[in-house]
Amino acid sequence: MMPASGCEHFHRFKTTGDNLDTLKWIYLVFVVGSVSHLRQMKFCNSFCHTCRNRGPHLHACLECVFFGCHRHIRDHNADAGHRFSIELYYGQVHCASCGDYIYDTDLDEIALKNRMQAKKFHKRLFECISWDPSEEERQLLTNQTKKVCVTPETTIGLRGLINLGNTCFMNCVVQAIMHTPLLRDYFLTKHHYCKSAQMACLVCQISELFQQFYNGEKTPLALPDLLHLTWTQATHLCGHKQHDAHEFFMATLNLLHKHYSENTLNQNKTVHHNNTGNCLCIIHQIFTGGLQSDVICQSCNGISSTTDPTWDFALDLGSVTEGGRSPCSLLDCLESFTKAEHLGGKEQIMCEICGSKQDSTKQLTIKTLPVVVTFQLKRFNSSAGVKISTAISFPEMIDMTPFMSKRKDELPVPSDNRYSLFAVINHSGVSAIQGHYVAFVRHHYTYWYKCNDDIITPVTLKDVLASEGYILFYHKQVLAYE
């Protein structure tokens, strides 16, 4: 696993001469290439200087003018003694000394500055799936006299939710769900066909709610049916007292998965499980990731690995980071979350190889990333019953590569693990059962709104990033399809 602090070799490289300027230029021309003359330059020069092929995973050496495919760039690094190359599709830098693709905050800044200038990247970043209408569809839209005009400044999709008595925990979760791009695209195309009564199926209710959110109306909505269905099927959330928004979010995902599996009509003979037994419902496709646990015996170095599915990452705010300080950022929390933990004394684990209990280390890493990564900052100490109000900064965009499980016995191939913030749930108050929840949601490209029950107000990104943060929602920037 590549440390979040990056590569020590690259730290020295970027502070020497004009190496960083060279990297910026190569990234602008050969990774982004959004201007016509830059695209022409990219096309004329982007091929392997050894085999003349244009891939796979073409790299440019950062220390000379050599271009090479995944195989020949490695040969060039070894022969010329050059360490660094940049992969021209994803824009990730490879360090030959580390033998891996590296993470560095300067790389994030270069990527953001260059790519945000490309309109195509804007669409791919926040809309996730762009629509290229056919001529027939264009003609149909032209002839329609009653149609909704969607502009970047539109408020379509923004609706307040009436508080039914301490239901702000539900309202803020619903706002985050309504602004999850891929989930929105799924429900607005009405893929769900139900064999149950609508009031008894949560998937039907969410589908109808998406229609109500995006029909152009602005009056606030009340959600008594959703609240009643939750009460009847998640009894721990019954009653008119305040509940934890994260607990409601987990219950909602679980009920959506359950109702999808039980009530969806199999009209296209769709198999709802793949050959590994994993559920293929829309909830699991978007929210489910894999968390890998590696236990290493300190006596024989034997490794025991398990992978478990997860819908979110609960991050402790009380753990001390590797630098000996309390976490003050989301990256700090993730470093602490994936830090190796020593298990000794009463915590010794039985080693299958040694046949006895031995000291060991346990480390959590992320095996597979979901489309939507959800972070819960654990602000509520269940034993003490008080809230942790520590200021934790979080970024607009995050690269999850440093926290991924290391691949074994295979060549490292770059993958795009960058995510964009699209919703934040905040809590004000002293405990989980007291206080108030609000949500910030991203609307279209750069517009943010604060959803305080039935009141919707525009805010800036700076306002969002300066907020306390309780549940953070990030959407994958680039989607890969099988």
Please, could you describe this protein's structure?
The chain is of the alpha+beta class. Helices cover 31% and strands 22% of the residues. It is built from 15 helices and 21 strands. A hairpin with a 4-residue loop joins β4 (93-95) and β5 (100-101). The longest helix has 19 residues, at 245-263. The protein is globular and about 70 Å long. The two termini are 26 Å apart. The model is unreliable at 119-130 and 267-271 (pLDDT under 50).
Brief descriptors of the model:
single chain; 482 residues; alpha+beta; eight-stranded mixed β-sheet; five-stranded antiparallel β-sheet
Could you tell me the radius of gyration in angstroms? Answer: 25 Å
Residue share in β-strands: 15-25%
Low-confidence runs (pLDDT<50, min 5 residues)? 119-130, 267-271
State the oligomer.
single chain
Structure classification = alpha+beta
Structure summary, number of beta strands: 21
Indicate the mean pLDDT: 81
Principal-axis shape: globular
> What separation lies between the terminal Cα atoms?
26 Å
Can you count the helices? 15
Helical residue percent? 25-40%
Largest sheet features:
8 strands, mixed
Topology (SSEs and partners):
Blueprint: H1 8-14, H2 19-32, H3 36-45, E1 59-61, E2 67-68, H4 70-80, E3 84-87, E4 93-95, E5 100-101, H5 105-115, H6 119-126, H7 135-143, H8 168-178, H9 181-188, H10 202-213, H11 224-233, H12 245-263, H13 282-287, E6 289-297, E7 303-310, E8 313-316, H14 330-337, E9 341-343, E10 349-351, E11 356-358, E12 360-368, E13 372-378, E14 380-381, E15 386-387, E16 397-399, E17 418-431, E18 434-443, E19 447-452, E20 455-459, H15 461-465, E21 471-476
Parallel strand pairs: 8-13
Antiparallel strand pairs: 1-2, 1-3, 3-4, 4-5, 6-7, 6-12, 9-12, 10-11, 13-21, 14-15, 16-17, 17-18, 17-21, 18-19, 19-20
Helix pairs in contact: 2-3, 2-5, 8-12
